[in-house]
Specification:
The chain is an alpha+beta fold. 32% of the residues lie in helices and 27% in strands. The protein has two domains: 269 residues, FAD/NAD(P)-binding domain; 152 residues, no CATH class.
Length: 440
């Protein structure tokens, strides 16, 4: 193993994404010699494509709403959010010259609408604080001595992306593991952090895709790919029982459904499918109308339609691609004259408009997942510092931790908040360990 003076540091941060660059800059700002190790040729690859290239930085919700968004992981994140939260992040970037705008759903974006501007600002800030960024290195394992970490073993990556066998060591008094999850592996998130943490003794909650498009029975989406429904209600039914619901936008794809609502519901769907439950999506096309008001609306349309055929009348109620599925599901002949519709047919039509069923058969892979569910067990991490409870000098930040939320900027805020806290905590720990004689 080659040990180079270039790789001596007080704090080594594994991963140059949102949480890693924030951790590295914060550690360096506190006076720690800091090295950020990134496996790709440049840091921030995944951040650079976030939000379809626009980068939804955060959300102007309060702490209570963030905690709720993260479900069981919410209470764990409360400490990090109290230390560095939404306005702190907005001010952080605006101080760097990156203006922000708040859009629908309280989502915050850079005013330039360019995710790469976020990457450039964050990377420039970290370097300006004194952090060094070492690219083209894959972290292989944590180097342990006794009950603590003393560095990271690295493998050099060739310019073509392959991993060379010659290894190096980045020695440190503290290590922040911010290697990301397993989603979008082409950006460098290939689960390295999970393997390293597990090898050091940490339990890994099974990882699976989250915020991921869903696959549906082909017959139920025939003719629908490309159609987007807005302002619809969506319910998840597991073995026929309602478990979760959402409201907003849904898009049909060649394999199933995507869009903000299906993505936000996907974590629960993935878990249900893993447990071999039958999963169905129930789509309410008219969520603003209860059954009685919807029936009154249909009656008005029928009265005004005269001799118009039902296939033509329905175009005023639903998008054209849904007309054929509607007629098939309700058994109403397309050439039926509107004023001849029976009360039973009208009842079936109203019921279908409130409950369009899609049988979910699977989900897309990590290559299409926005975030990863699962990761390092939170019970083995101190939420006050993000320090490992098992390995002295080891800290965690970002997606490597078992935490995930829906769309809207929540996940990136958690990455920045945990990076901020882990970086500052690691710097303090490194200085203490150095004073106590732990060599780096």
């Amino acid at each position: 193993m080659v040990r180079s003076e270039e790789h001596e540091a007080d704090v080594v941060v594994v991963g140059g994404g949102a949480s890693g660059l924030m951790a590295g800059g914060q550690a360096a700002a506190r006076g720690a010699r800091t090295l950020v190790v990134e496996k790709m040729a440049r840091p921030g690859r995944k951040l650079g494509i976030a939000g379809k290239g626009r980068c939804n930085l955060t959300n102007r919700s309060d702490v209570a709403e963030f905690v709720e968004a993260f479900g069981e992981a919410g209470p764990f994140l409360r400490q990090a959010f109290h230390r560095f939260f939404v306005q702190d992040l907005v001010s952080f970037f605006e101080d760097l010259g990156l203006a922000t705008v708040t859009e629908r759903g309280r989502r915050v974006f850079p005013a330039s609408a360019r995710a790469l501007d976020v990457v450039d600002a964050l990377r420039g800030w970290a370097l300006g604080q004194g952090a060094r960024v070492l690219t083209g290195r894959t972290a292989r394992r944590l180097v342990l001595e006794g009950s603590g970490v003393i560095g990271v073993e690295l493998l050099r990556r060739s310019p073509a992306g392959g991993v060379e066998t010659e290894s190096e060591r980045a020695s440190a008094s503290a290590v922040v593991l911010a290697a990301g999850g397993a989603s979008y592996p082409a950006t460098g998130s290939t689960g390295d952090g999970y393997r390293m943490a597990e090898a050091a003794g940490h339990r890994i909650v099974p990882v699976r895709p989250a915020l991921v498009p869903l696959e549906a029975n082909g017959a139920s989406i025939t003719g629908l790919p490309g159609l987007t429904l807005r302002n619809v209600g969506v319910r998840v039914l597991e073995d026929g029982a309602r478990t979760l619901e959402g409201f907003g936008e849904l898009s049909f794809t060649r394999f199933g459904v995507s869009g903000p609502v299906p993505l936000s519901l996907s974590r629960a769907v993935v878990d249900a499918l893993r447990e071999n439950r039958r999963v169905t999506l129930s789509i309410d096309l008219k969520p603003a109308l209860d059954p009685a008001k919807l029936d009154a609306r249909i009656l008005r349309d029928l009265a005004a339609a005269g001799k118009k055929q039902m296939r033509n009348l329905l175009r005023g109620l639903i998008p054209k691609p849904l007309v054929a599925p509607c007629l098939a599901a309700t058994g109403i002949p397309g050439d039926r004259v509107a004023h001849q519709l029976t009360s039973e047919e009208r009842r079936r039509l109203g019921a279908w408009l409130k409950d369009v069923r899609l049988e979910i058969t699977g989900h897309r892979s990590f290559e299409e997942a926005i975030v990863t569910a699962g990761g390092v067990d939170r019970s083995e991490i101190d939420p006050r510092t993000l320090a490992s409870r098992l390995v002295e000098g080891l800290y965690f930040a970002g997606e490597v931790i078992d935490m995930d939320a829906g769309t809207g900027g929540f996940n990136l805020q958690a990455a920045f908040s945990t990076g901020w806290l882990a970086g500052r905590s690691a710097a303090g720990s490194a200085m203490n360990r150095k004073r106590e004689g732990v060599q780096s």
